[in-house]
Structure formats: structure tokens, C-alpha cells
Amino acid sequence: MFPLALDPIAFSIGALKVHWYGLILGFGALAGLYLVIREGKRFGIPQEFFMDMLLLGVPSAIIGARLYFVAFKWDEYKQNLVDVFKIWNGGIAIYGALIGAIICGIIYFRYKGYPFWRIADICAPALLAGQMIGRWGNFVNQEAYGGEVHETFLRNNLHLPDFIVNQMYIEANLAYHHPTFLYESTWSLVGIVLLMVLRRQRFMRAGELFLSYFIWYSIGRFFIEALRTDSLAFKGGSGLASFINGLWSPMKGLGFEQGYLDPNYGNIRVSQLLSLLIIVAAVLLMIIRRTTGAAQAHYSDPIVSSKTLAADSVAAEPEGTSKENASVPQSDLNHPPLKEEKKE
Predict the structure, then answer these.
(1) Residue 54 predicted with pLDDT over 60
(2) Residue 191 sits in which domain range?
(3) Where do the TM regions start and end (predicted)?
């Protein structure tokens, strides 16, 4: 007799059921907000800016995450479109969330007059914090787990507490599984510390902390993704599949085996391939931005909104200055021309 799995319903208000999944995601968003507000104070950025960013960014991220997931699972949703909106049952993709959040950020930062790369750098540790906490929503829902393992591996090798070990027993499979949620959550925690150390280094240029976030997360996601049994996948060339499996092979030396992937569904995991592409693209972008001079500003340099500069410029104009004399030198305004002398 195994202990019952955790109830995914936290509490109910009448007919409304509040899921742990949503509460955990919300807590992750608030933790990220706290980090960006705290770091934003160093640059004199008002906290209202980040609060509005959260109000816009979270819905954009959820929409992007769900659309990304549904696009790869369309055959399962096209007959029942109502299920597309049931995000409390899981089924959102982090890479889709990032796409939605970045698009929102580009528009919102431009509207506020802040350079995208500078604000994105501030947000980098917060993104990892949200992902670190959000993965525990998968834990409660018993989803996004890895392949089968022995109970002794969880208890003796990983030294996990009972509540995690018990939750990793999937009754439908009558087996214990890799706690991939925990692997990714721990990887994100280490990444937060790394980014906080990097952002204090003088050599960091604008945008490089944000790109470092992508590199760090994608490295971890590449190796963890292969352990899962629910990966989004597609059928690709055998050469590409062999290349990806070869890069992952060092994990076998650590005692890990890849999770089952139905060959009829696909042979290349989407997140693994995307992780590799993101790592290469981020490194190239760092090099290009440095060589072209696009990354001249350092992380520690002041951040000023162009809207604030424009407002200060208008406020600095002397009273009574009109459009007609706006281009006239100030010295000419203070000393009008002498009257022309009468000719004798």
C-alpha cells in the first residue's frame, strides 16, 4: 500500500477549485518580482514599472506557453478545444512562455523608453527564480517526470525525503520515476547564484547577463529533457538524432538512462534541439554585439529612460520660449539686436 499522491486541489470556494499548480506559479511570479524590484532600486527604476511589467508579462507568458504546447499536441486538442484553456491541468512549455514574455517586454520597454537589453539583464535572475519555483507545480500534478527508477535510487543515491519519493510513485505506471522537476529546479537555483555573481563583474556588457541566462538554462534543459517521458518531439533525420544522443551520452556514465520516447511520435525532442540552437545563438550574439559595438554599455552603467530624458529637456527650457525662437541661441534671446542707426 503506497501513500496517496498529493491532492492537486489546494482548496475550494464554492464551486471554484483553486489548484496548487496556479498558486505555485503565482508565488514564483511574485518571487521574481521581488528580485527585479530590489535590483531595479540600484538603478533608480521605480517599482511601479516592474509591477506593470508583471501584470502584462505573466498573461503574455502563459498564452505563449500554452500556444507552444498545444501547437505540438494539436492532434490531441483539435477535437476538444475547451481543453486548450485548462492550464491548471498542466501542459505549458517554458520556451513558449519565454517567447511570449520577450515579445511583451520588447513592446513594453520601448513604450516606457528603456533599452530592452538593460532591463532584460535585470530580469534574468528573476526568470530563473520563477522557473525554479514553478517546477514544483509539476511535482504536485505528478507530471513532467522522468523514466522509471528504483526506489533505492531515490532514497539512497539522491537521499530525497519521503514526501518527494512518495510523489514520484506514479500509480498508473506502478513505478517510481526520476524527479526531473527537482533536477531542473536545483539547476535553476544554482543559476540564480551564478547570475548574481556575474552581474557584479565589471566585464559584463549590456545584454550578456540575459544571454547567459539562456545559455545556463538551455544546458541544463538539454540534459534533463532526455530523462523525461512526455517530451514534445518530431520525426527528424537519423543523423541529427544520433548527434543529439551522442552529446547526451556522458549522462550514461553517471547512471542515467533516457526516458522512453515513442518512435512513432518522433525521434528528436524539441526542447533538446531548441536548447542547442539557443546556446549557439546566444554565444554568437554576444560576440557580434561586442565586435560591432552594440554592447558598449556595461551592466553597472546607469539606466535612464528616453522618456525621462525628453521630459527633463522640456522642463529645462526657459519660460516663454516659443517654437519660433526655439532654434535661436540663448545669447540672442537675452540680448536683442541693436536698433539700426539712422542714415545721415
Answers:
(1) yes
(2) 9-306
(3) 20-37, 49-72, 92-109, 210-227, 270-288
